[in-house]
Amino acid sequence: MTTVKTNSMTPVQAINDGLRTMLHEREEMVVLGEDVGINGGVFRATDGLQESFGEDRVFDTPLSESGIIGTSIGMAMNGMLPVAEIQFFGFVYPAYEQVMTHATRMRYRSMGAFTVPMVIRAPYGAGVRAPEIHSDSMEALFTHMPGIKVVCPSNAYDAKGLLISAIEDPDPVLFLEPLKLYRAYKDEVPEGKYEVEIGKGELLREGEDVTLIAWGAMVPVIKKAAQLAEEKGIGCDVIDLRTLSPIDKDIISESVQKTNRCVIVHEAQTTGGLGNDIISIINDTSFLYLKSPIERVTGADVHVPFWALEEHFLPTPERTMHAIQKVMDF
To answer: Among 65, 102, 134, 232, which has the minimal tally of Cβ within 10 Å of its Cβ?
Structure first.
């Protein structure tokens, strides 16, 4: 039996390792973005890649998000495999038109003659004391958009495996990287190439009473909340969605039909958040199984506040525990 060698890595180290693995694997792959080359990225996600693979394959761009994405679309349509970094997810707005109008529609527009195999990497989320526009969580803007997949890992193992799957995908993939988790934990990550399937969530913990659903930086929050609930004799299913589009409807419905209660946690604002779509999935598949209304624990309907108030904006295990108790007491 072959033993797979692993290394202990943080999520940002795993992302770097995934990029390095695929730069070796795919000669047509390039990495581009602001400061990804000489500086190795502002969070060091691309550290050492330009030194290893040269300026033709890992290169800095002007400060122009629409230019980065527009250039990547052209590359992808002409046989290259671009992995573009948007330095912070909140900076993607100038490139939104390029993604919506061109990247996601080219296969449809050309009747399959052209595809756009590209990855957009974007650090996102609050909790790191960044200034405004650096902390937004706008995943729902892209899950609403046909033609692009959206993935969001919560740990190093999934970060590398999902990134490799995203690079191998024949269509555009938005790869969201939780800023708060970049160096928060370490996992054992296999050496070399492996894939985590896009479109499949993961059941991290099993319980009989309440389903907890989150992704990205909120996964540690619901894991802690499940521990708090266990102290009160409440057992929770803990689901890490991992992929936001296409979303894993089966893992959601199977869990809710077992527990009959659900709490959804995300750091994006309540209004228009992805939690609303998850509620619709539950209503469509599992409404008659519910013993209580579904609860959401989210960011507030305001801009992400400056650092002095940031922790009051973000969901916490305690807020999540309050929602768990509410669905249990209904």
So the answer is: 232
